[in-house]
Amino acid sequence: MPRAHRSAARSSASPAASSAASSTTASTTARSAARSARAARAGLVALSAVAALAATATAHGPATAAPRGAATPPAVAHRHDDGAADPARSGPVPDPGEAALLGEDHAREHARRRLAVGSTGAAEYPQAKRTASLEALRTSQRTANASFDAAASGRFTDYFPSPDFGVHVAQLPTGKVLLFSFERVGTDPTKETGPTDRIGRTNAGRAYLWDPAKGTGARAFKKVEPPTVLMPDGTYAPRPAPFFCAGHAFLPNGMVAVFGGNVGGKGGTGAKLSFVFDPWTETWFRNRDMSVGRWYPSVVTGADGRQLVMSGQSERGTGTPTPVVERFPARSRPVPWRTYDIPTGLPVERFRADAPFRNDYPHLFSLRDGMIYGLGRDADQQWLFDPVKETRADLARRPADFRGYGSAVPLPAGFRGPDSVLVLGGDPHDPNTYRLAGGAWTTEEPRAFGRTQDDTLILPDATLLTVNGALDTRDYGHGPFNPEADLKYRQIETRGADGRWRLGPAQRLPRGYHSNALVLPDGRVMVTGDELQQIANDPDVRDGMDGSIELYEPAYLHRGARPALDRVPAGNLGYDTEFPVGTGTPGEVRRAVLLAPTTVTHSVNTSQRHLELRIGEVRGDTIRLRTPPGAADAPPGHYMLFLLNARGVPSTARWITLGTR
C-alpha cells in the first residue's frame, strides 16, 4: 500500500522516525515535484505525452479462528469502522445474472459497490472521464506500436477486465494465476483508494484465481477469499485477512507461503499473519503468527526448501522496520515436499542473525553457492546470509546510491544456478544497471531511461524483459495521484544476448506502484497492477471488475512454429539425473531450459531462475535431459520446462518437480 515518503526515506527504527512521518511525506512531495521539473528540463519525457482522461470458513478449512497465542478479543459486539454496532446481514438485492455467474455473495458485493459509487466516486471522478481516458490510451498505444515489427519486438494483444488489482501475483504449477490485494475503499484515482490507514472491517484482503485455459472473461476468474481473521486493531472486527503488501515465496510442494500484511493505521502497520495458499485444493490455510509484525517484508526459498523472512515495518507502524529474521517452517517441523503436505498451524523460528534493513522490501536471492544475498535499497546495506551457520556478512557497497522500488534479477548462467544479480530501476535519473558478481559490483549497459516501479522478467530464451514503470511512486511526470501518463513509461525494454537494451512497443495502461508481471507457461507475459491507473481507466467502475490484465507476446512467438513438448516424467526428479521427455519435433530441439515460476510484488521477485539443461541421447521421439547439479543451483520445487528451436522459439511449457526428500 502507498507510503509516498518511502522512495526518499532513510527511516530508522527509532520513535523519532515514526513521529516525523508526516513531515517526511510533505518534503517528499515537494522533492517529487522538483524532480518532475528537472526531468522535464532535461528532456527526459520521450515521445508524446498522452493525457489519460465469516462466510469463508467452509472453504478455508481450520484457518478462520484467532491464531494460536493471539490475544483473546474482548467480549463485546463487533463494531463498524464508525463505531456502530454491526446489524444483521442485509444489503441490496444482487443481479440474478451476476448471481448465476459469480455466486450470490459475489454478486451482492457488486450491488453494494454500484450503490456506493452512485453517491461518491462517480460524482468525484465521473465514468465519462474514465471511459475517455481508456480510449485515449488505446489510441495512443495503437499509434505508438504501428512501427514495431512483432518478429523483432513482440506485440501486446489482449486487454481485459480482472476482479482484482493484482498487487500480488503468482504463477501456480496448476497453470492458474493467483492474484490478491485489498478491497477498495474509494473510486477517485486522485485520492488514496486502499485501506492502509483504515481500522476495522474495511481493512480487508481479497484473492482470485485466473485460469488462462478458460479465456479472458468473467468465467475465467474464481474467488478464493482469504481466511477470516480478528485483527488486533482495537475493533476485532472479523474480515478477510488484510494480507496485502505482504511477502511471499514458493514452497517445494508448489504452495505459496505469505507473511505479513496490514493491521491498519499509522501509515501501515505490520501484521504477524502467516498463510499458505494450496493451489491443488485452491484453499488458504493459516499458520502460527510470526513473532513480529511485518508490512512490506521480503521472503526467499533456500536450497533446503525452507524460507527466510526479512524486513518490513513492525506492528508499531511506518518508520519502525524490524531487524528480526525468521525461518519457515521451523527446523523442528518437516519441509512440505508433497502436494498433500499442507502446512497448517506451523510455527516460524528466529534466525540467529539480524537483517537491519533501513528500508523495506529488500531483494533476496539464493544463488549457486547456497548463500542468501540480501540487497537493500540503501547502497551500504548489501549483505550475505549463511542459512546453515545463521550468520550475516557484509558485501561490497553498491555503486549507485539509494534506490526505490526497482527490479533485480539473477542472471542466467547456463546449466548451473545463477552466480550474479543484475540490479536495475528504482532511480528515475539513473538508467544504468548494476551487476554483483564474485563479491564485486560493475556498471552494466544502461536502459533507455531511468524508471521506478518496473518489473523485469527472465524469458525462456534467457533474454530480459522490462515492463511497467514510473518517475516516482505514482508520478508519471505530472505529480502523485495524477492519472495523466507519459508514453515513455509504457514502453517495454528488452535485453538481448549481447547485453544491449532496446525499447519496444507500449502497453495499454501506464502501471507504476503495485504493478506486476509474470511469464505464463505458453510463453506469453501477463501484465497487471497499479490500482489507481486501473480505477482511472475502469470501463465500468460500478461493477466488481476493478482491475485489468494485458498480455504481451514476446518476439519469439512470431518467428514460426513451436517445437513440441508432449511428455515429461511425473513425480520428483533428483539432481544431476537423466530423465526422458517426449517430443513430436526431435530434430528441431536445440535447447532445453527450466524457468522458475514468478511470485512478485512491489518489483520484488525472489523466485526467478533460468537454467539450461544438458541434452543427452536423442532416440526417436524421446530426448534425454539432465537435471541441474544440486539444490543450490535450483532450489527444490516446481519448474516450467521449455524446449527451444534454433530460432529461440519455445514450446509450451510442461511442469516438472525438482528435489527429493
In summary, what is this structure?
This protein is an alpha+beta fold.
What does this structure look like?
There is one protein chain. This protein has 661 residues and is α+β, with helices and mostly antiparallel strands. The protein contains 8 helices and 41 strands. Strands 6-5-4-3-36 form a 5-stranded antiparallel beta sheet, with no helix packed on it. The chain has a 5-stranded mixed beta sheet with strand order 33-41-40-35-37, with no helix packed on it. It has a 4-stranded antiparallel beta sheet with strand order 2-32-31-30. A hairpin with a 5-residue loop joins strand 9 (247-250) and strand 10 (256-259). Helix 3 (96-102) crosses helix 4. The model is unreliable at 1-90 (pLDDT under 50).
Please name the defining characteristics of this protein.
661 residues, alpha+beta, five-stranded antiparallel β-sheet, 8 helices, 41 strands, 12% helix, globular
